[in-house]
Amino acid sequence: MKLESRLQALRGLMAERNYDALIIPRADEHLGEYIPEHNERLRWVSGFTGSAGMVIVLSGQAAIFVDGRYTVQVRQQVPSDLFQYHHLRDEPPLEWLAQSQAAGTRVAVDPRLHNLQWYRQAQTLLGAAGISLCPDTDNLVDHCWLDRPAPKVEPALLLDESYSGESSSSKRHRIGETLVQSAADAALIFAPDSVSWLLNVRGRDVPCMPVLQSRALLWSDGSLDLFVHPGRVPEGMNSHCGADVRVHPADAADTFLTELGGKRVLADPVTANAWSQLLLEQGGASLVPAADPVLLPKACKNPVEIAGARAAHIRDAVAVINFLVWLDAEQSAGRRHDEATLADQLLAMRSSGRHFQGGSFDTISAAGSNAAMCHYNHNNTVPATLPDNSVYLVDSGGQYIDGTTDITRTVAIGDPGADIRHMFTLVLKGHIALDQARFPKGTTGTHLDVLARQFLWSEGFDYDHGTGHGVGVFLSVHEGPQSISKAWSGVPLQPGMILSNEPGYYRDGAFGIRCENLVTVVEVPGPLETPMYGFDVLTLVPFDRRLLDVSLLTADEIRWLDDYHRLVADTLTPLLEGPEGAWLERATQPLA
Amino acid sequence: MKLESRLQALRGLMAERNYDALIIPRADEHLGEYIPEHNERLRWVSGFTGSAGMVIVLSGQAAIFVDGRYTVQVRQQVPSDLFQYHHLRDEPPLEWLAQSQAAGTRVAVDPRLHNLQWYRQAQTLLGAAGISLCPDTDNLVDHCWLDRPAPKVEPALLLDESYSGESSSSKRHRIGETLVQSAADAALIFAPDSVSWLLNVRGRDVPCMPVLQSRALLWSDGSLDLFVHPGRVPEGMNSHCGADVRVHPADAADTFLTELGGKRVLADPVTANAWSQLLLEQGGASLVPAADPVLLPKACKNPVEIAGARAAHIRDAVAVINFLVWLDAEQSAGRRHDEATLADQLLAMRSSGRHFQGGSFDTISAAGSNAAMCHYNHNNTVPATLPDNSVYLVDSGGQYIDGTTDITRTVAIGDPGADIRHMFTLVLKGHIALDQARFPKGTTGTHLDVLARQFLWSEGFDYDHGTGHGVGVFLSVHEGPQSISKAWSGVPLQPGMILSNEPGYYRDGAFGIRCENLVTVVEVPGPLETPMYGFDVLTLVPFDRRLLDVSLLTADEIRWLDDYHRLVADTLTPLLEGPEGAWLERATQPLA
């Protein structure tokens, strides 16, 4: 009933403004993966809590579009009498609109909530069907959402150079210089994590994403105009960033962008919203479409950032090991907890660590067959209790002032049996092959992806997700441009990049397995005829030996596992005592 | 002096027609890899015999552009007082022209000898520098080349359905139907191997490429207009191809293409020449730019073609083994031959085989350090004699009525030593890993390429060429769209495709190694959770066990090699007697 009245309010306003349809994406105006409470417009209108989706409200009906991860969840959360369900990829919303609606239909869209690439595509697709796309930044949902929470506004954190390793001034000047090559006078730096990295600041207003909600214009001389809510500007911001950073209120951005007539402004049509680029065009600026120039420099971490990430991973490992020790003890005592209790316990272990700022994403705490859903979230359903003789999959991470972590371990519950051990070992063999890879300059993640899949493929198995994503340092746990996946990446891997190595295997209705470490790209010591890069591991938590079928491992693989466990033991033994110390000693015993 | 007078004649004609520059590519009007003698215009003007390059003649100077394979050869063949040398990739001809020539310069180009993609790029690049591109199909070289050989014109061969496995009518109708999806009325089928496959005919007029020099227009109803020299049309062509194939003289094509006003004609901007598409546009047809619709159907061989390829590979293996036996005997007798004698001997062995039609490419017969040049051709230099204690690399293939072969074997000469054995074994390990790969639908050659390189990479080595190319059936030994390489291929591997598996290693000035078999993509017998494809080997010649460092091989790799050699022995023992039979028995003894 509550949703029904929300839809009614929206339809009333749509009629008032003469719209036949309204598009509501999940994104907010920063287009990030995580969004603050007050911008959860899709959830408000539909009840759906997934991380991706789109709603289209028409005068007589409404439709929600979600991808394969959420086809079950959407039916549980969104009432079928109010919404039709559609598949986001198989029946894309724009195609659906173009095919189902008559010519002359007027479709309202808030161009602040979409990137330019999508917006142009919408114009073309709907235009071809005679449908008008009506940009409207006076968001209809915001008018109808009467109990909308106030935005969280806290002063940003100024990140000391002992964590960032490079001053904002140095970053801005070296990236500003690259703009000259693109013949651009300035670049729109739209992604909050790009702005945050560039200014060496972090925010506290978005769950899991420690970014300053802001946008900026970086000039080729290295100076920068920052647009940010004044309540987020901390004391000392000016002396921290440098005198050539000019701070403006967030709502001054629109006018500013229309006053750049004659300038050539680089903007990323994928990461920057359509509205900002429409404003630039309106004001007479020339758009230079190109990738956000901060992406690649941010992805290649400097030695100080890598050292920070290493330190954060050691603290994170202590927390995860404490959790695993506790879990084993509870198992031995015959106590089987549910997924929510387990996730809470893990968070509690992390929270006591130095520099901990919160989770880096929503923990996937999945028991038995729930682990077969790669993006399972126990908060969207009744948390399951650990079943006997199966596995528990826990994918979690933390934000620390010096680094971001992301780790998945699969844990034996009772005796998981030969089949699960067989599959776990195939997954681990892939993880080892990727970790050991050496590769020349120019190699991308797509070239290496098969190394992680080959043993599964060889027996007729696969997993339906990428093998690795980029990770920031006290920034987004999912960052580009680096990745390891079947989908073509034209970006070569470079020293300092941090990536996950996370092959898995999922058997519907039965169990799920994933082995995930973070690694950083390093130069292999030479001299070599062809210089090679390789990976150096950051994550330091033992793999569960109870899940191994050692007969499937080669001597090289056994040596890799023993070396890894020795590294874990050498690093963490000084930090763990009593039962935790004893557990670590057992868990890292060599196989050979 | 001879070249000088040729250049003088060209410059006279350029002045007459008011051109400041003339572009001479290596390609002829069919844009194929191999070209007949009478179209060797680049060789005529420069003396250069390489397989790729471009000459630009200016009034006061001339320049030749070749790639890294030919930087040595070009200096031997092309006089430096007449030509500047440039690198085809590092200093591309068009960029060089745009930068070195003044605005107003008039550049003559024969649009029959370039694809449309290149032609458009030339217009843009030169246009931006104020330079005019002047299309001229009255080729200047042809006017000055007084002793130009007459074209070779022989009647085509009609390929029986017992070789092709599918009638021309069936091929034309099923591909015609796909044109409807592209909303095209017809498709320009420009590549001679596409036309030859579509009509089940083969030609004899181009070295190594058994294609009918012709082009065609395929209509969506499956009917076809063929443009071909009347002297190439054999008796019975009409009844062989079907009544809906209309044969026109080759020189009727230009007029025909200008009479398609209002039609939508698919043309491949990469494989079809610019001229044909300019004519279509002139006549009012709409161009639909898309890949040649014959490429993919031709690449996926039917069971009859695969059976033919297998039979051809057995005969080819007999020839290659006879050669290897002879070579070993000559070695034992202390006779060291030169590269030309060896290549001739191998050709003689092949020539006696049933259905043999000629080589499928110029044999690479490379002794010792010459093998370090991946595209070495002994005809371009003084053939070297086999050195002691090294390797001989021979990369060769044959055209047979039922198939096309391409094989590289590296052979021990004397005692090659531990270093060469180590490198050979790393290369062979990569070959084995790729051969054994299993992969799901959607996998492309780029995903698999690393499997062949991983063991070299692991020790700091690599090779600077692709791992595999597509191969036709009694057609081009290099065909697309399938390939296995670092360069991104978006074309998934499909059952019936034939590819080479040819990793290598090259040490400058020392030695070269390559292990090449042809394989075909097959479905792996199930049931499997995820259906998988794999490779089935076509080539059946032992690898040289004297080059192995067995200590580097895993048990799986030893099993692979023993299984392969058992397959070779089982297939070929009945066909080899006396010393050849005894050699085969020794060469295929199991390692384990």
TrEMBL record, chains A, B:
Residues annotated as domain Peptidase M24 C-terminal: 531-591
Domain Peptidase M24: start-end pairs: 310-522
Parts of the chain that traverse the membrane: none
Annotated Creatinase N-terminal domain residues: 6-129
Keyword Hydrolase applies: yes
Gene Ontology CC terms: cytoplasm
Entry keyword annotation includes Cell membrane: no
GO molecular function terms noted in the UniProt entry: metal ion binding; metalloaminopeptidase activity
Gene3D superfamilies found in the cross-reference section: Creatinase/methionine aminopeptidase superfamily, Creatinase/prolidase N-terminal domain
This protein's UniProt keywords: Aminopeptidase, Hydrolase, Metal-binding, Protease
Entry similarity comment: Belongs to the peptidase M24B family.
Protein name: X-Pro aminopeptidase
